[in-house]
Amino acid sequence: MTDDEKYMQRCIALAQQAFGNTYPNPMVGCVIVHDGQIIGEGFHHKAGEPHAEVNAIRSVTDQSLLAESTLYVCLEPCAHFGKTPPCADLIVSKHLKRIVVGCVDSFSKVSGKGIEKIRNAGIDVTINVLEKESRFLNRRFFTYHEKKRPYIILKWAQTADGFIDKVASEKNSPKGVRITDEVCQKLVHQWRAEEQAILVGTTTAVNDNPSLTTRLVAGRNPLRVAWDVHNKIPEYYNLKDKSTPTVVFTANSKKSCENLEYKPITGNLVSDTLEYLYEKGIQSVIVEGGTKTLQTFLDAELWDEARIFTTKECFTNGVSAPKVSLENIYKEEFSTIGNSTLQVVYK
To answer: Rounded to two decimals, what is the model's pTM?
Structure first.
């Protein structure tokens, strides 16, 4: 590993400390090195607050050292005025010797302009150091701006023999059988707090009557999204309790009210949903629906990450789990969580 890669890894680690807090901004970490020693570092804590470069530069005790120092940052410095001044201007004003950038910012207001401004000032700039890792860090941000849709996470739990639920009948067989234990459930609530929206289909909404909140952890509730084409979700169900913002996609027009919006389907259900979320500025959505809803995203190749809990329990028969292709994936991770093996697949 080169020195540039080592310091860029530190930038990424710093940036990750603000996970879930910087929306709509990306996570950014910055390190300043003089003669092989880190003399300053910082990260972007929250939208509207100083950027990583500002915090790192402010942390340097002897500002005279900046002119002979290298600044590492995992994302291209901004060149536009937003809630804060351009970081590229600050870097130029401090006459830093060299800048190393993890990846270029594809956001239209930046997109190479920050690098160009710094280079035009005569500062040496190296780009794309740990580019894949830097882009992966802000995969939600990049997906939103480049693909014009939110980053899509699919989540489900399945038995060892490949079932997501038991078969429900009118006379017997429980609906919405829980497969995972409390440890897994708490982790799922933490995931909800980290994403901006959560989506389920009609069957899951009717059978499970989920709240889709973060009640088991400290954190904000995501926007609740339900597919209910024929208005089968009862008015007294949790999804319609108006406790947190909720949107229901339906073919039948209904009157919206505070925290409960009915959105008529104008074309394709998936396309309408993703377009709505994009226009609302939603950068990520976690899909917790049943097999039909999850398979809809899988078949359309509209997913970025899958989180699959597998328990040792067997149902013998029931509702089959979704089928996901593991071809051309970016990476795959396994861990043990509670009573389950958690498989995370990144496309």
So the answer is: 0.93
The verdict on whether omega for the bond into residue 24 sits within 30 degrees of 0, i.e. cis, is yes
Sole residue written with tokens 């930046």? 110
**Per-residue pLDDT at 83:** 66
Q: Tell me which of 41, 53, 76, 194 is the catalytic residue.
A: 53
Would you state the structure tokens that stand for residue 293, as one six-digit string? Answer: 């809803």
- Identify the CA nearest to 207 among candidates 185, 235, 246, 174: 174
- Strand bridging mode 246-250 / 70-73: unpaired
d(C-alpha 125, C-alpha 73), whole Å: 11
Q: Look up tokens 């009717």; give the residue.
A: 206
Known catalytic membership, residue 53: yes
Instruction: Compute the distance between CA of residue 56 and CA of residue 299 in angstroms, rounded to an integer.
Output: 45
State both tokens at 77.
């410095």
Render pLDDT for 107-132 as a digit per residue (tens, 0 to 9). Answer: 766 778 899 999 999 999 999 999 99
Q: Which of 85, 112, 90, 92 is nearest to 101 (CA)?
A: 112
Calculate the alpha carbon distances from 146 to 130, 180, 270, 284, 285 in Å: 20, 35, 18, 13, 16
**pLDDT value for 168:** 55
Tokens standing for residue 199: 């989506």
133 φ/ψ angles, rounded to the nearest 5 degrees: -65, -40
Instruction: Measure the CA–CA gap between 268 and 82, rounded to whole angstroms.
Output: 35
Polymer length in residues for the chain: 347
162-195 residue pLDDT tens: 999 886 543 444 455 789 999 999 999 999 999 9
Q: What is the DSSP string of 152-193?
A: EEEEEEE-TTSEEEPPP-SSSS-SS---S-HHHHHHHHHHHH
CA–CA gap between residue 110 and residue 70 (Å, rounded)? 21
CA distance 5 to 130: 6
- Per the structure block, which two tokens stand in for 153? 């996470």
Distance from first CA to last CA of the chain, Å, rounded? Answer: 26
Compute CA 129 distance to the chain's CA centroid, rounded to the nearest angstrom. Answer: 23
